């Protein structure tokens, strides 16, 4: 998850090397995010039924191929194919494929905090990956750095070993569901669709910010290290924010926490519009946004397990996550299109503010209780 988030460092050098605008690279990352969302449902279903280990191994190889192809790209089509492979890769190696394994391993009262550990790990990954990629770019060039990152991704495969084998049913588990029954139950649940709508906004925000911030910083005449340190500050603050979000479920309803997170994001985007953009202002705003970055994941995914149980948790969360990735796709496509048309990101910041306020409102009506099927089961 950390290496996935360094792609924004390559937007400007790759676009300039190929002599194209920012739209092809931005669209490739949009394709990656959309592919990630669609295939995460498949990866989540396979992980729920057969285990996450084999999914991780196959998708780690796709991640390696993506970085290699990006390093050797000659045309926009090469970039698009690399984006497709990146989406396939992260569908099986990212959080969405693992929430079921973690959710089944943790008791219900600790499930939100356990899932938050995935977000914390992602934040640590970002903290390490950004200086790692930046130093590689500065010392051996951006193309060679992508080759080294591709080799680094090979480490993912052996780390899948502890997750090999099929999931073991929990003691006292409720009646088993078929795949069709699980989808039918979720699609008939209004609060599930509110989660789907809200997570769209999360994807829109994080994909646009993560990919376009380094270029935005450069456009302001600031040195390249500012973008790196800003995204590192997102990663560090994300560790804190995700941990606090995981603990908050013990004291505050998850829907309230989600509304608060999205409302606070609007202040970060307002700062980028109205504050004087010095290096430390950009880094400070990024740290503020980082507190509310992946902190949505433990609250959103644990609501899925609260509603429907853990049998098909990865798959159902992955459907919610598909909305997140559709938001990522639209955010990246819109950012590249608007920038090439206006040479400014101002309109995108206003769109981000409006969507943040929408998401804050849409989570408020969620009802935090299990579906009738679970409420009717005798206590284990």
Summary?
This protein has helices at 11-18, 23-50, 52-71, 76-93, 99-105, 111-140, 142-153, 179-187, 190-219, 224-248, 254-274, 279-291, 296-308, 313-342, 346-362, 372-375. It has 380 residues and is mainly α. The mean pLDDT is 88.
How would you describe the overall organization of this protein?
- This protein has 380 residues and is mostly helical.
- It has a single domain (3-164, 179-371), classed as Up-down Bundle (Growth Hormone, Chain: A).
- Helices cover 75% and strands 0% of the residues.
- It is built from 16 helices and no strands.
- The two termini are 36 Å apart.
- The mean pLDDT is 88.
Computed structural class: mainly alpha
Number of helices: 16
Q: What would you call the shape? A: globular
Major pleated sheet: none
- Number of self-contained structural domains: 1
Uncertain runs: none
CATH-derived architecture = Up-down Bundle
Mean pLDDT, to the nearest integer, reads 88
CATH topology: Growth Hormone, Chain: A
For the record, the CATH class is: Mainly Alpha
**Radius of gyration computed on alpha carbons:** 20 Å
